[in-house]
Amino acid sequence: ASPSSPKQQPVTARHTADGLLLESISYTSPAAAAITPLSPLDFAILLSLCLDVQNTNPTNDDLTAEEMAAYLERVLSPASSSSSSNNDDIDWTIFSTGLLERAWLEFDKSWHTKERSLLQLQALLDQHTSRLTLTQSTYESVESSAPVQKRLRHLHKIVYPPRWELKRDLAERYAAMGIVTSAAELYEELELWQDVVDCYKTAGKEKKAEGLIRSRFEKGEETPRLWCALGDITKDVKCYEAAVALSGERFAEAFTKLGRHRFDVEGDLVGAGRALERSVGVKPLQPRVWFLLGTVRMRLEEWGEALKAFSEVVAQEPEEGEAWSNVAAVHLKRGESEMAYFAILESLKQNRNNWRIWTNKLYTCLDLQKTNEAIQSCHTLLELRKQKPTSVPPLEEKCVRAIVGQALRQSAAADDDASRDAASRTVERVREFLKTLEAHVTESWVYETKAHFEASTSGRSSRVVLDDLMKEYRALQAGASGWEMDGDALRKICRVAMQIVDCHKEEGGKESLSKGRFLIKGLIGKIKNAGYLGEDEEPEEVRELEHVLGELQDLIRAL
Q: Taking the complete model, does pTM exceed 0.90, yes or no?
């Protein structure tokens, strides 16, 4: 645009009525917006249909909540009553039931709606009393509340909980939100002392909880649950024993807590196992207790009992990945690799980022000669170690050597086209795996294994073999300070040097032989300059190297 042209102004975004998200439906004509008044019986039927949706659909599901909300919206609509549009003329019990159901739905939506839901539940609870509260703050609101005859008029048409059930529900929701002090007050009004104690413990008021328990004991209100709570606070095993005795040995939680105390505090594995056995005997459906019992049996090396315990866990909770892993570990201890393999697969379905499970799979696949799956396990372990280098241990040398050995044996034993093709694919996977391993691990055994593998598949004269041997030679010298004085390190380095010379001899060229002579001559010089300790004369390795050096010189002169 030219300088004299007017400047372009920002475009103002204008919303039409069709583009707004309204709080409620906006009809085009008043006739369409008219709501047919309903009778109290109609409201009761709508609430019944609402509950039917809840009872025949999955709980805590957004779609179920939306279907229920449609019925509640009709019940709570200001113009729903057949007598008037004023909410005061709508039946008290039916309207309260609708508010209660809506509050329960909102509690499961989000943290914002949870607060509103709690206030609504508190208001519904307060309207049963004549005292002033946060939601019933004036005497006028108390006096204007519906009289008893109106409240009970349609009581048998709907499902409205008693006051004490509503109070307990509100207390449980307070506790779930972490508002434990308010929850404790409600529980105390209901004389649910165990729940009061739990709230005090959560709030860090152990002394107050202990005082409450002892005051109930003084009034003769001893219960096994309160004795267990006192044991949790005081860490006194006699409290758990008292709970067991008071319950006539029929209270599973007392046995469970006694077993945990024996296991965690006293370290008495036999006593812990005995108590946990009694617990699951009284109440078998306790997967957490079965898991702990299996752990105790594993510590005692009672593999049959441990397998039984962990099998109970996976039978009751098939998605418990740790239990499947322990089932596999027990099978491995018993030499049952095939059974361990299937248990590990189930465990990996639930937890694919646990390096211990992948290590168990690696061992199992090696036992079952499943080389390709063993390679996959190694790749996964390398990736996990890359993500958490301090938590995941490195691959074990023996496992890598076992994979290479299996692949080479399978290749040598192949006697038909199908087996040869499968063995060939496995060999290529091993080759790619060793390349990947070389990028993660720079220890000498990696290059030694790779050189052995390439020599067995490509021949000793392969350039790859020579490169791997040179990397191993350098890694040995770099990884062992003072190797000239260390007999074991010296022998390893001399062995690798001999293998390098053999590769140069097979190539046969003057340049290659000269490289070998230079390598051996330099190695002899390093050993002699360092001065070999422990012997008066030169070590045998030096004499062997000098002999090889002489052979190389003869071969070079002969060319």
A: no
